[in-house]
Fold these 3 entries.
Entry 1:
Amino acid sequence: MWFLKLIGISLLLLISSPSFSEGSLDSLFESVRIPKGKFWMGSPRKEQGRYKDEKRHRVYITKPYFMLKTEVTQFQWVKIMGFNPSYFQERSDCPHNHQIIDGVHLCPKMPVENIKWIKIQDFLHKLNILSKRQYRLPTEAEWEYAARAGNDMTFIHSNSHYNLKEYAWFDDNTDNKPKDVATKRPNNFGLYDMSGNVWEWVQDWYDDRYFNRGPIRNPQGPRNGKVKVLRGGSWYSPSFILRVAHRGYSAINDTPSYQQGFRLVYDTEP
């Protein structure tokens, strides 16, 4: 009986979904290939602004994967879901490129926000029915590895917040709202907004001692928990929150925040 119910749900999603020609859906999501490799996850003890849950440890990413160049935008979300949960979606929020699609207001290039972790799962379910790929949230280790892009520095570009404004939207250079994606410089992997703009949900449950005992190869996070990890900081964050090692967290069904968005990854192999 449960199998028939799942088939019925899938058919309903397909019937109610926008019409996409073969391959056109995936063209909405531009990605970068992230090579396998090893890195130091967390922060050294003397790093300014460091928290105790950032124990520095060696991690190996043993398979390449693809990560979206940007955080998922309002346009991408609306194309899949047909509605816009974002707090910042009115013409006054983006007067230069505001759109209305089937009655839905959106700032198409701004990251979708005001998203619960649990609602991202609905988006993924619908997206993966329509897509040739199997998208998912990154693990916390995949996120930090991609953010560091081969460096071992405090911020994505250096050990100082000097010139951070060239790479990130944060409390020093925003007018209290997120900005269009990919309007700052990318990191060395070609990923935009890995620091600032909106916090990015990842797949892992949060555990403040997981870095002390987690596996060193492709860690997936704790098996259970009460809150999920958020990474990267937001348009509202002070610069020290934008340190690559900084870890945020929130409950999966908590009141959504206009500082929280996400980006996706997919694997090169099934």
Entry 2:
Amino acid sequence: MKPLILAGAMLLAVIAGWTDSRSRRIPNWLTVPAALIGIGANTALGGWEGLKISLLGAAVGLALLLPFVLLRSLGAGDWKFAGALGTFVGRIVLVDLLLVSVFVAGIMALGLVIYKGRVRQTAKNIGHIFVSLVTFRLPGSHVSLDNPDSLKVPYGVALSATVVLYGLAYVWGVV
């Protein structure tokens, strides 16, 4: 990956993570121009191959996360952020980033549960979800993401942190 492209992805991640942490939204004014910049930068630096990398990265990011948006377990801003990020890093790196970000989000969620003192309630909710999976029934509304009392981790922050960590690992020669 070209350092300029990685720098663009990291800048996008920092801004998206900051806005998501402050307002729980990643706005279109960020994701749409970022996608165009990612496509333009990859095309300028890599020609037709760079264009292909960008478009496939966007398509894979949007396709992989669309089911979660449709199930209302992921916001549309997070979805568009992943697509814009894909225009910078391409499909292969994006898939790795998305997988690692799930673990980062899990660590953030665990920290939030402990911080809020909701370990027992969370364990009960996980039990309800497990029983629902085994019995092929939907869990009750108390374990729904629509529950206003449920704890929520901003996924954009987790994905942003993952991108920054990846960028630092790349600079240090670890990846």
Entry 3:
Amino acid sequence: MTYVFEYRRYRIPFRRPVRTAHGVWTEREGLWIRLTDESGRVVYGEAAPVPDFGLERVDDLEETCRQFGDRVAPATIEAIPSAMATLRSAFASAIGPSPKPAHKLLTLAALLPAGRGAIAEAEARAEIGFRTFKWKVGVGDVAEELALFDDLCGVLPEGSRLRLDANGAWDRRRAERWLERCAERPVEFVEQPVLAQAIDGGTGRRRADDLLRGLAEAYPTPIALDESIVGDGDVAHWLAQGWRGIFVVKPSLLGNLTATLAQLEKAGAEVVFSSALETAIGAQSALRTAFGWRGVAKPDVPPRAIGFGVWPLFESADYNGPTAIPYLRPEDVERINVEAAWNAAT
């Protein structure tokens, strides 16, 4: 079996810049691939590295695709270097079997912008039914953000849950200050409070790991790993360390997603699937993975909201995933028109 191979590089501005602890992100850049098998069936994949996750460069991915020519075989795909995880993910999602949905419906967490804009956004999202929210923190002054935190909690509807995503920006003192406040607020979990890059200039992974474990044991608010598990071997590392917190999995960023999910399922780990701010092509694949996940840490507890309440990210509807509503069904995922995204970039 060989495939006719095509690829397109894209660079699409966000409707509004995304501010995180790593800086201001103004556009999404990556590659789309299209494969046509010998029967004429056409499938798509997306390779979309996140600038501050790992070392992948879109230029390198494009050069690899250029070298493939107009046809690829499974052996060629298998030879893609492990360092090009998103490109491996793009091919795997395109030609691999789609998991059978294990859920009839999944709720979504609405992404809130950093800063004071989160309050108006939360009110607007709550109006259409969202009850789980994710707020980017670690962007501004700690005292100012903590004051905004109180204001934000004050506008959330009763029964809402808030996730805080620090993107690894805090040191021990800041993390402890936040976690003390979280214990008195409706915080579902804190995502990646610290990271090695914020400690000892990137040489302190062991110190950062120890700090994460210590914070998880010292405070009642659960802690989730995100940037700490972007490589295929990272999940195995944390499982070996006995991590009992949450794993935030971005399917588009893992080159060996099947093996990683098998490890998590075997360990009975609690997983929250999340968007990497992909376009419609990558979003469909990632959402299929979320719907197919059968591993649940507590079978009697409903799955946590998935982190895909991010759209519309782009001005054109062709590039976006499903409309921003507080829940999705498998049929909503299958209605995503990936061919429209491909054609829109022509």
